[in-house]
Specification:
About 25% of the residues lie in helices and about 25% in strands. The chain has 8 helices and 13 strands. With about 270 residues, the chain is of the alpha+beta class. Bound molecules: 2-oxoglutaric acid.
Length: about 270
Amino acid sequence: MTTGPMSDLQVKAFQQDGFVVIRGLLNAEETLLTLTAARQDEAIREHSMQVIDTKGRSTNLSLWNHPGDDIYGAICRSRRVVDSMEKLLGDEVYHYHSKLSAKQPKVGGAWEWHQDYGYWYQNGCLFPDLASVFIALDPATRENGCLQLLKGSHRMGRIEHGRFGSQTGADPERVEAAMKRMDLVYCEMEPGDAVFFHGNTLHSSDPNVSDHPRWGLICCYNTRSNDPYKESHHPNYTPLLKLDDSSIQAMGARGSETGKSFLEAKRDKTQSAN
Ligand SMILES: O=C(O)CCC(=O)C(=O)O
């Protein structure tokens, strides 16, 4: 798929499973431009938080609330992504934030099982009407810590999140029970492939034990009708200007614009990077 929103079948898969994988969301040229921009992006590097896992390994996470005039902004505002999100969530959506999650070879850390809405609930979102799209920029494999999703887990509703023993994330007792009843899917992807997943879908990822980086761009959306009732570190409803799909390629390998505002709060997994 390179243009247009999702098919009805893909929407049905998302509703049933809590996620849907779209192969080739970005074409080869667009993916290369994005990866080139990200690898050279001084601002992304400078503003990245170290998200530390339970074994002390770290993922570099750079997070921004508003789409910039750069290639990541062109992607998160593209009709192909936004129209798909709107079809999946059944409402107008706005950009809640985007992030670059970079697991470097050998040192990139794990993410414990969590639901994004487990954290976003605290931001005043009354309904779990949020979703994200993870776009692979490198090959994402089991060895380098691809995303893992628990199929159908979005139907469990919001699970308690917090610090449980030495771990932070979703209540491990409930996660363990859920894992006995639902299929764990390792979301292996080629660069340019993407997975759209619901805010209540349980997901995690293993450390990167390979010799290869695993970088991914994650764009998150909330619905207009779910405008948070209070202010938080992520934005309230802000109209999203959609761009034609051709804008991605037209943008070229342009990284973060000068003055782009990143969320830099020092966070580790005890505070949630979300
Ligand atoms: O990058 C990953 O593997 C997972 C990231 C994630 O789950 C998150 O940012 O909420």
